[in-house]
Amino acid sequence: MTYVAPPLAPADPKAVGSGRSGPVAWMALPALVMFVLFGVVPLVGVLLLSFTQWDGLGTIHPAGFSSWRSVLSDPGLLHALFVTFLIMFLSWAVQTPLAMLMGVFLAGRQRYRAVFAVIFFVPLLLSSAAIAITYKALLDPNFGLGPGLHLGILTQDWLGKPYLALGVVIFVVSWQFIPFHALIYQGGVMQIPASIFEAAEIDGAGTIRQFFSITLPQLKYTIITSSTLMVVGSLTFFDLIFVLTAGGPGDATRVLALDMYKRGFQANLMGPASVIAVILVLVGLGLALLLRRIGGSTTDSQLEGV
Amino acid sequence: MEPMSTSRRNFLRLVGLGVPAAAALAACSGSSPSQTGAGGGSGGSANGAATYWFLTGQPQQGIREDTVKRFNAANPKTKIATTEFQNDAYKQKIKTAIGAGKAPTIIWGWGGGGLKSYVDANQVVDLTDWFGENSEIKDRIFPAAFGAATVDGKIYAMPAETVTPIVMYWNKKVFDDVGVEPPQSWGDIMDLTPKFNAKGIAPFSLGGQSRWTNMMWLEFLFDRIGGSEVFQAVFDGEKDAWSNPAAIKALTEAQKLTKANGFVKGFSSITADSNADQALLYTGKAAMMLHGAWTYGSMKADGGDFVKGGNLGYMNFPPVDGGKGDPSDTVGNPGQYLSISSKSSKSEQDIAKKFFSTTVLDDTEIQKWIDSGNVPVVKGTREKLAAAPDKLDAAWLTFIYDTSSKAKNFAQSWDQALPPSAAETLLDNIAKLFQLSISPQQFAGNMNQVIAT
Lengths: 306, 453
What we know:
The complex is a heterodimer of chains A (306) and B (453).
Chain A: H1 13-27, H2 29-49, E1 52-53, E2 61-62, H3 66-72, H4 75-106, H5 111-120, H6 122-125, H7 128-138, H8 145-149, H9 162-191, H10 194-202, H11 207-218, H12 220-234, H13 239-244, H14 256-266, H15 270-295
Antiparallel strand pairs in A: 1-2
Helix pairs in contact in A: 2-15, 3-15, 4-9, 4-12, 12-15, 14-15
Chain B: H1 2-28, E1 34-36, E2 50-55, H2 60-74, E3 80-85, H3 87-99, E4 106-109, H4 112-120, H5 128-133, H6 135-140, E5 150-151, E6 154-155, E7 158-160, E8 164-171, H7 172-178, H8 186-198, E9 202-205, H9 212-226, H10 229-235, H11 245-259, H12 276-282, E10 286-292, H13 295-302, E11 312-315, E12 330-333, E13 336-340, H14 346-358, H15 363-371, H16 382-386, H17 391-406, E14 410-412, H18 414-417, H19 420-434, H20 440-452
Parallel strand pairs in B: 2-3, 2-4, 9-10, 12-14
Antiparallel strand pairs in B: 1-3, 4-13, 5-6, 7-13, 8-10, 8-11, 8-12
Helix pairs in contact in B: 2-15, 9-11, 11-20, 19-20
């Protein structure tokens, strides 16, 4: 008697392949239409506007490279770029470790941790504008939290000193978004098979050793995902900063997005504002691609041998 | 697995591209306006009826609504439909609507640089001839109010509503406690500053984060030191107008007061829109405050018995020793302004003009402004103001009437007078000047560049 192995692969891989890609391509259509309509078309519009002169009221005059020249020669642009990257880096550096620790903690199965998870999630449900208004009131040097509790250390010129204001922005951003990233890390940690930890425990690895040798390497892609969201997301810190400091004091917290808004909608210079919008797109694209590169190929399995 | 990774890359690209688009969209969305009246449509020609956009916020909103209601009752065939907006949302919305050719028939505004940008784009009707034919309307209104309605010698708006100069407030109780008299000159201000600081009281309250609050100080210092022609030269676009020695002196004096801790500690963190600066004055944490006349009502409402108990003192900005400016000069908002869109039809424009001549600032509206504690922009209301039921209100209203009507020169707030692009740079540099992060010379240099372009 001969044993016939069951066929592992389908008889005709070609037929199945084409059958799959047909509906897949079709399903991408609605997203593509939205993307072209709300992503590409405005982008082309902005690119065209950057070569014009327009105050938002009268007629649009073509102006060649004059807007580009005025923006690129403006020291304000370098400053805005510097502030943008500073806030990006600092908010990443503050959020990542805290969010990771919180995520690992929340991944535990105990009931009380689930309760914490719900509480931690609350800041994410609030609108940025509401958070900014609240913090502004709390940090008021005369009627805020510090004077109310008679705590000298909380009674600072929080939004009036350049470095304090920057610190406040990063603190509020972190306060708002750490829970979100903790959630991502929580999911990532829960995906790690328990058998790896069991094996490590048998080998005599302690909790800390397990964290650095198993949890952290296994979270590699989670870290990349979360970092991408943080880095690209920090380019859009507009509402919060606009309400909290309005870019001030002076221009200490004027990020690129705010600079664009101020030039376009407050100073009525749509040409230069469009130039900044284009720069913003390029920076965002560059960062997203860079993070992909750092992440390497995603097709490798992290679970070989499990 | 290849399709999978491609789609992820696309996703990332989408995230990257979507970001600025989302920011732009976020910037466009304002708060939803409320519409009333006939054929509400968003501007343009709404079946024969004229349209009128204005601001919310009591008591002004109720008075505006009432004026339109009375016009519509008297003219059932030619009604005006109104749409109301919150202040900051309106500033964006009206600009976008005018740019898109969807302006309302009657455009409510602040005059000055904003009005000039509409004029430059041929978006508003020249009312010079209409005022010539209807001189009785023009003659009723404070002459000073027409400055901000005039572009290149032509009148493009009707001054309406109320006049609100900026005045110096002081807390009588704090002055009594410290045992000092209100300042008669700029020198007195500098002398008073250490006395209040020694008692742990801030000499001046200031909501510095709002920036235009700091600007009010410069407006007065420029005027008192160099006279009204110093800023006029800036306004006229004269080369290096900001480097005028009087301007440099005014900027230096402002920084001197800042260095002497003349302003409340942490003033750069305080905003005017939360009224925290007013609270500092009526709680006695600050002795004085330079602010618009519009703060009287809110201090009366929020300050307990501060205003009602007669503890609020007020005066025009004192003269600067050796200064050339006329001490009767004042700055602020000489009025609010109603323009007519040039994109509206002839019949709509006629409705608007009829509205201007028959109902705007009629006796009923004037009385309503007075009852709400405001001084309307019309002449000859002093008796009515003095007859206000509350004695303290009557004294306040006549003070504002006298300050406004006797001012040799009533300058418009700089950020309203200048074109929007220059105003933004100005506010930026003012914030830095009060932060002491730039010198008066750097300030003048930065601002001269704006004139040059």
